[in-house]
Design brief:
The chain is mainly alpha-helical. It contains 3 helices and no strands. Helix 1 packs antiparallel against helix 2.
């Protein structure tokens, strides 16, 4: 067909070869878009409320309550959503779990025969000297 080719040029997304998070600018831009869209919805609630008052449809109180709830709750939700960081990817969650496993201290296990128990049974001294443990008796075996 004339000068057109059969396969139109299609913009493709670049292949992601890293597990790096999105840039701060990208995250900020997406949060701005979410906030502005929610504030637009709030403005739509205000306009809808004004139109409803002039038209006076049945159940006007219910419709006005819904519009008022939208005008009050949407800013709160918009701020929470706009300040939220993007969800972590599977790779980020796996890396965090692996780091947590590496950071967990490992306690060495000893059998009951290897552990020596020390029982302290002493009366306080009258002269105020500090108690010092006596040397173990040579005939005692560790338990």
């Amino acid at each position: 067909m004339g000068g057109r080719s059969e396969n139109p040029v299609v913009k493709k997304q670049p292949i992601l070869i890293t597990d790096a998070a999105r840039s701060q600018d990208e995250q900020f831009r997406s949060r701005q878009l979410r906030y502005v869209s929610m504030m637009g919805l709030r403005a739509a609630c205000l306009i809808a409320g004004a139109i409803l008052i002039s038209v006076r449809p049945p159940l006007l109180g219910l419709w006005l309550a819904l519009c008022a709830a939208g005008m009050v709750l949407l800013p709160w939700a918009a701020v929470l959503i706009a300040n939220d960081r993007p969800a972590r990817s599977k790779a980020e969650r796996a890396a965090a779990a692996a780091e947590q496993e590496r950071a967990r201290p490992v306690l060495t296990q000893h059998s009951a025969e290897q552990v020596e128990y020390l029982t302290i049974d002493v009366e306080p001294t009258d002269d105020g000297e500090r108690w010092a443990p006596a040397e173990p008796e040579p005939d005692r075996k560790p338990r």
